[in-house]
Amino acid sequence: MNNPIRIGVIGAGIMGQQYVRIYQNNPYARVGAVCARRLEKAREVAAEYDVPVAVDDWKQITESPEIEAVCIALPDDDHFAAASSALKHGKHILIEKPMTTDLDQADALVRLAEASGLKAQVAFNHRWLAPYHHGKQAILNGEIGRPVCAYGRKNDTIFVPTKYINWAHQTTPAWFLSCHDIDLVNWYFASEPVEARAWGVKQVLVAQGIDTYDMIQAQVRYADGAVATFESGWIYPDPFPTMVDSFIGLVGEHGHL
Questions:
Q1: Distance of alpha carbon 231 from alpha carbon 216, whole angstroms
Q2: How much is the pTM?
Q3: Most buried pick, 19, 64, 140, 151, via CB within 10 A?
Q4: Could you report how far apart the first and last alpha carbons of the chain are, in Å?
């Protein structure tokens, strides 16, 4: 391709590095700059993936005339400032999930994107994973009838909030984990949620100095009468066989996924 889109990646952690790697291997894209809080880290990632510019101030990406689109892979509660700056400076955006940790900020980003005509997307990548994609196709093909209820569970071992990330206190398991399941169920139901109630427990992690929820459970009712239960948490014991315990089940009028 003669003119691949020039992308700036903000964040050089676990997901940020994956985005840089993937974009650099895509003929339709080229990473023009990468940002990390520590300049040494940005330079390390830039050198590994042949990125020409490394910075420690994301405004150098969102305000750069050389960048056409921005990928935001910052901790959950840092998404809004970078995303709004990118939109205000004419950049398309891809935001790591969740969109924000504040509803007013999410609404503001939607308004900015709509007013600018720019593309804005949240990276709900589960829609492209084969089992979930086939589930959607089964529903569209009428294989289980209209979905009437769903259960989504996504739990991590305690390794994640205590050692894997150092900003668990800035988010919750619902934002970090359940957002994937909520997106999938909304997609499967093709109906708007109209009522939600949730309960959370703070004990284990607070005792370790990490002020966030251990577990959250929520029940949601949708406009077409369907209901869903979502569970998320991150205090499974480390000897658990996998770091993530993930499951979604749907019951339809005459079938089950």
A1: 6
A2: 0.90
A3: 19
A4: 41
